[in-house]
Amino acid sequence: MNAYRDQYATLFHNGKKIVLLAISTDSVGVLASWAKDADYPFTFLSDPGGAIGKAYGSYSASYGVDTRNLFVVAPDGTIGYTAVPFREVDPTAYTSLGAALDRLAGTP
Q1: Smallest Cα–Cα separation from 31: which of 58, 23, 6, 86?
Q2: How many domains in the chain?
Q3: By residue range, what is the domain housing residue 76?
Q4: Is the torsion defined by CA of 84, 58, 89, 2 positive or negative?
Q5: pTM score
Q6: Tens digit of pLDDT for each residue in 19-75?
Q7: How many CB atoms lie within 10 A of CB 21?
Q8: Are 83 and 96 in contact (CB under 8 A)?
Q9: Are 108 and 102 in contact (CB under 8 A)?
Q10: What CATH code is carried by the domain that includes residue 30?
């Protein structure tokens, strides 16, 4: 999540035309504390039962957590980009993600 935070202004266009939602099975309190402590500029959503993760095939029943998959929803509501799994430590993952975000946001 720190990589998202550190690249938020450029990668996510500072939130203009792009909304970043980080979804986790962690509780609301844990997520709120973590987001505040790390100064994350985006929204965290709690999925304690894994319903969202299950709907997107991103829930690990054996561990009881949502997995590190990434879905970009286009303005028309369709999935415009996926990274399953998202390799957050690989710099090229952000190159691909940035290109997809630029395309979907209509940014050159």
Answers
A1: 23
A2: 1
A3: 2-105
A4: positive
A5: 0.82
A6: 888 999 999 999 999 999 999 998 999 999 999 999 999 999 999 999 989 998 888
A7: 11
A8: yes
A9: yes
A10: 3.40.30.10
* Cα–Cα dist 88/33, whole Å: 22
pLDDT for the residue numbered 93: 92
Tell me if 66 sits within 8 A of 25, measured CB to CB: yes
Sequence-ordered list of residues with C-beta below 8 angstroms from that of 69, at least 6 positions apart, any chain:
56, 57, 58, 82, 83, 84, 85, 86
- Beta partners for 33? none
Backbone angles phi, psi at 56, to 5 degrees: -105, 10
Torsion sign across C-alpha atoms 30, 3, 79, 69: negative
CA distance 25 to 51: 9
Which token pair is 43?
């929204």
pLDDT at 15 over 90: no
